[in-house]
Amino acid sequence: xxxxxxxxxxxxxxxxxxxxxxxxxxxxxxxxxxxxxxxxxxxxxxxxxxxxxxxxxxxxxxxxxxxxxxxxxxxxxxxxxxxxxxxxxxxxxxxxxxxxxxxxxxxxxxxxxxxxxxxxxxxxxxxxxxxxxxxxxxxxxxxxxxxxxxxxxxxxxxxxxxxxxxxxxxxxxxxxxxxxxxxxxxxxxxxxxxxxxxxxxxxxxxxxxxxxxxxxxxxxxxxxxxxxxxxxxxxxxxxxxxxxxxxxxxxxxxxxxxxxxxxxxxxxxxxxxxxxxxxxxxxxxxxxxxxxxxxxxxxxxxxxxxxxxxxxxxxxxxxxxxxxxxxxxxxxxxxxxxxxxxxxxxxxxxxxxxxxxxxxxxxxxxxxxxxxxxxxxxxxxxxxxxxxxxxxxxxxxxxxxxxxxxxxxxxxxxxxxxxxxxxxxxxxxxxxxxxxxxxxxxxxxxxxxxxxxxxxxxxxxxxxx
Length: 465
Hints:
Layout: E1 11-14, E2 17-20, E3 24-27, H1 28-31, E4 32-35, E5 45-46, E6 54-57, H2 59-63, E7 70-72, E8 81-82, E9 100-103, E10 105-106, E11 115-119, E12 125-128, E13 132-137, H3 154-162, E14 170-171, H4 174-179, E15 181-184, H5 187-225, H6 251-256, E16 266-269, E17 274-277, E18 292-295, E19 313-314, E20 330-333, E21 345-347, E22 354-356, E23 360-365, H7 372-384, H8 387-390, H9 401-405, E24 408-411, H10 414-453
Parallel strand pairs: 6-12, 7-11, 18-22
Antiparallel strand pairs: 1-2, 3-15, 4-13, 5-8, 9-11, 9-13, 10-14, 16-24, 17-23, 18-19, 20-21, 20-23
């Protein structure tokens, strides 16, 4: 028999390929019952919880907030409730511990089949909401903690994508999902796999908490260093504390600085220390294979980091030398009015020829006056403090070039800026190092998950009697 077709001892051939002999291929409807759900919108939700509250699991929260396989109500935060809590059992099914909630619609294939298992509900009333399908084990052949991984098996995940329909938004129906075949190990092996993957999750969660702690530390450093509350001995001595009041700045900035200009610091409008310019207006041509790369809003995430998976190009002759980005240029999001994005600033440090378009203003810093990374940190600091949301902006939620030019910038001399920048960059390096560790942990879990869920690697467990 050909080596490629030889079936390994203890395995059998199925439509999903080779799986262990004692594993089953069953339909979703063979082991799960489908529960009724509701379709309330975001406008029907809020976060003030009382004893009568009905918790509502919205598909958007599964995509973003509840990004673990388990939603534990003893640990979960920011779980919305309905404004009107008069939902009765006749209207929908209240969820129980162990129920699985699956997203039935996604804008991309990767989001199809994303699901969470509910745990530690207690006496709470919980319902499944918009664009979700809730299912409950009826045969006791799936293990708690393993259930969300049923649809992460690469073979099942591919089959799930094949039954998704739609063009801009992909969806799955209860009918199609009920017919979907899934792969189930014996329940004891499911429990063992779930424990192993939970150990990986715990390592990831510990790392995430460390990143959060480091980020909070950096915020504290920014609060102290960028407002002059923490100074270096060589730049200030006893008796030289400033009594000069801040003038010509909004009340929000005055509060950050306790209405005092730090000793030896300057208070200027942005246009005196930098040049602000709009991006190119030429329409994007996604058919080009060479040219100048264009940074637009989708290429900058909410953390100000660049995402270069898809970067359109423009012909070199259509871009002036002044429009080419240089290391140290800042890109300011002036057009997106959301809390996360308006005012977010990215520090350009990429190698190669890039320009910018879309809703990003370029800030070219006069380096003899201000260190670019200092200004980058300063703008993001006042953004974190809500300055751009409290400031007077246009009706259509923009912060245009003229308004940005008038942005007050409070800064020390270059030498002190460089000391501040060194501390903040070191804090960034610490965070980046831990983020790389977390990325490795997630990659390890993804690899381990697939060999365990397909039976390629078996776990040792005591057989049921």
